[in-house]
Write a structure and sequence with these properties.
The chain is elongated, with a radius of gyration of 17 Å. It has helices spanning about 5-15, 20-25, 30-35, 45-55, 60-70, 85-100, 105-115. The chain folds into 2 domains: about 5-70, lambda repressor-like DNA-binding domains (434 Repressor (Amino-terminal Domain)), CATH 1.10.260; about 80-125, no CATH class. The two termini are about 25 Å apart. The protein has 7 helices and no strands. With about 130 residues, it is mainly α.
């Protein structure tokens, strides 16, 4: 599950909305919405995120937080280590191998370390 998918599920549950009801409101299939929640689909479009914010009547701060989660929710991130040091390439590969086995506390500690060392910036879209 992606951070966006988890938050979407929380919003639905808090408002007592079924997957089918939200899908109908957004004019998407329930299967697509389920796949989005479970991280089996790519990052949702800005338009769909906007529709979701409207469907849940989110205030500006909550809408921006949901959009940020959508940007962080690529279920198949790609990392190109060309041009990086051998140590960085080795770390990227080790991380890819071990991430599925790390306990939540370790993941949180790594996230804190990365956030402290390199604060997040909005990701630029190509195209």
């Amino acid at each position: 599950m992606t951070p966006f998918g988890a938050r979407l599920r929380e919003l639905r549950a808090a408002r007592g909305m079924t997957l089918s009801a939200l899908a109908a409101r957004l004019a998407v299939s329930p299967a697509y919405l389920s796949a989005l929640e479970h991280g089996k689909r790519g990052t949702p479009s800005r338009g769909l995120v906007h529709q979701i914010c409207e469907a849940f009547d989110l205030i500006w701060d909550d809408a921006e937080a949901l959009a940020r989660l959508a940007r962080l929710s690529r279920p198949r991130p790609r990392l190109d280590t060309a041009g990086l040091s051998p140590e960085q390439t080795a770390l990227a590969n080790r991380f890819a191998d071990t991430l599925p086995h790390l306990p939540p506390a370790t993941v949180a500690a790594i996230e804190t370390l990365i956030a402290t060392a390199h604060p997040a910036r909005p990701r630029r879209r190509r195209g």
